[in-house]
Design brief:
With 506 residues, the protein is of the alpha/beta class. It has 20 helices and ten strands. It is globular, with a radius of gyration of 24 Å.
Length: 506
């Protein structure tokens, strides 16, 4: 196939890809772009590369087109315990400190491998954690692994690797944490494999941190050898989002070639032998005490609700004919139709910047003067959740429900907190309460599907996902879903379809 594409066309395409995927292809990398597009053109049976480019540029990229590009343009070069000094720092400094601070109290750890490729990195993290925390079955552990390349995710989910993935592992790793099938490959042990959750995420376009995709309140984020392929401004935006996704004192781990004096201005730079890491400053505690006893008094007005009020099955209330005619859930602004009060607005700005301790302090002072403001209570609940303080988050959420019992959004928020705490039956009941109040609440259907999957109830999960898709069908794809923290209806459709497709091929 002859490639006759003008420089102007390559420039247009490289800018288009940078906007949708974050990947940066300056002129010196156009040969890489050319090779990738030639492969896509052959695969998609285009007669010329120009025709393939026309197909890509004809409209906004769909998720399937992004996946096709990712399969040819992203780099999957990785192996177990790559850059051993980094994992030495993780096992000797970061994890012991986290374990000491959480043991006996909030026994909860959350780690994220962003740009996980074929899975060697998140499995290495899981192995390191198992070595540092022998009783990890007594902890609430989250190891999230995300990537934009579905082919990488599929291989990672299988957890089977050839010898090339074991170029320089620590002694004994292969024998202790892998079994050798008859084909000569090595398969990760189920006890390690089940600790890692793989999920599609586009760092350039998707919303994070978010309770919806479990990217909030992270203790450690690995994003190694990913930012180096991004345009500078896009890389800065990703770093800002990582900052917001980390709890106070959380760590960002990047590749040696990605250390920078200017890319991480909000982080503290911490130098270890052979590795440079970035740390979000520890948060100050609240300086204001908010009317002691309110949380318990308010919560007692509503909780515990009668167990027989709603069953754990999905409600059979008819769906609204369209999302335009029936809102997917009630307004969450503190006063519909008017600007939010200054204190609330200031706290919301701090919250969106990831300055959660400051937001919590402002909200505490605001609620001391306006103790019945349910929206402020709910925002304080979100703030605590993003700090990893789930007990406080749940208490404030239940106070918001007591102040506004008919707000489906508060029940949904409570369900997400309960899910993070591992209270799946209570989370299911909370979601069904939300649907009782608002049958067209699409995120509640979606969350029920994920809860069912986590409890190995695949057929029930598919029913919930089908309910969500039925509601989303009449929604404009660009519409931002309330309570989703910025996710659009079209993006949620793609997420659900991807989950269903993976289940069908599993």
């Amino acid at each position: 196939m002859t490639v006759t594409v003008s420089e102007a066309r390559w420039s247009q395409l490289s800018q288009f890809i940078a906007g949708h995927m974050g990947l940066h292809f300056p002129p010196e990398r156009w040969r890489d772009l050319e090779r990738g597009l030639a492969a896509i053109a052959r695969e998609r049976q285009f007669t010329t590369v120009e025709a393939c480019i026309d197909w890509l540029l004809s409209s906004p990229l769909s998720k399937s087109q992004i996946e096709i590009l990712a399969s040819q343009l992203t780099v999957g070069e990785t192996y177990f315990f790559r850059e051993k000094q980094t994992f030495q720092v993780l096992e000797e400094h970061i994890l012991p400190e986290l374990i000491r601070s959480r043991r006996g109290a909030n026994q909860r750890l959350r780690l994220w491998s962003a740009g996980c490729a074929t899975g060697e990195e998140p499995y290495s993290i899981a192995i390191a954690l198992s070595r540092a925390l022998p009783d990890w079955q007594d902890w609430q552990i989250t190891i999230l692994a995300t990537d934009i390349n579905p082919g990488f995710l599929e291989k990672a989910s299988r957890g089977v690797y050839k010898e090339w993935s074991f170029r320089d592992p620590p002694a004994g790793i292969q024998e202790r944490y892998f079994r050798r099938p008859s084909d000569g490959c090595r398969a990760i042990l189920p006890a390690i494999k089940e600790r890692v959750t793989f999920s599609y995420l586009n760092l350039a376009e998707d919303v994070y941190p978010s309770l919806l995709n479990n990217t909030n309140a992270m203790d450690v984020i690995f994003c190694r050898n990913v930012l180096m392929y991004f345009a500078p401004e896009r890389a800065r935006q990703v770093v800002r989002n990582f900052y917001r996704a980390l709890v106070g004192g959380g760590w960002l781990v990047v590749g040696p070639a990605e250390t920078s004096q200017v890319l991480y201005p909000e982080f503290d730079t911490v130098n270890f032998p052979g590795a440079t890491l970035y740390r979000k400053a520890s948060e100050r505690g609240l300086t204001a005490t908010v009317f002691p006893g309110l949380l318990q008094e308010k919560a007692q007005e509503v909780f515990p609700l009668a167990d027989d009020w709603l069953s754990s099955s999905a409600p059979s209330v008819p769906f609204p004919p369209s999302c335009q005619e029936s809102p997917l859930l009630p307004e969450e602004e503190p006063r519909a139709g008017s600007p939010p009060p200054p204190g609330y607005a200031e706290a919301l700005v701090r919250y969106e910047q990831g300055r959660y301790a400051e937001a919590a302090e402002i909200l505490a002072q605001f609620l001391a003067a306006s103790p019945g403001d349910a929206a402020a209570m709910a925002l304080l609940a979100r703030t605590h959740a993003n700090r990893g303080q789930l007990t406080e988050a749940r208490q404030w959420c239940e106070s918001a429900i007591a102040a506004d019992k008919l707000n489906a959004g508060w029940h949904y928020l409570r369900a997400t907190i309960l899910q993070e705490q591992g209270s799946f039956p209570d989370a299911t009941r909370a979601l069904n309460r939300a649907l009782y109040l608002e049958p067209g609440f699409v995120l509640a259907h979606f969350a029920l599907g994920h809860l069912a999957l986590r409890q190995r109830q695949a057929s029930q999960a598919m029913k919930h996902f089908a309910n969500a898709l039925a509601l989303l069908r009449s929604c404009p794809p660009e519409r931002v879903l309330p309570e989703s923290e910025g996710t659009t209806a079209g993006r949620l459709v793609e997420i659900i379809q991807s989950v269903r497709a993976r289940r069908e091929t599993a």
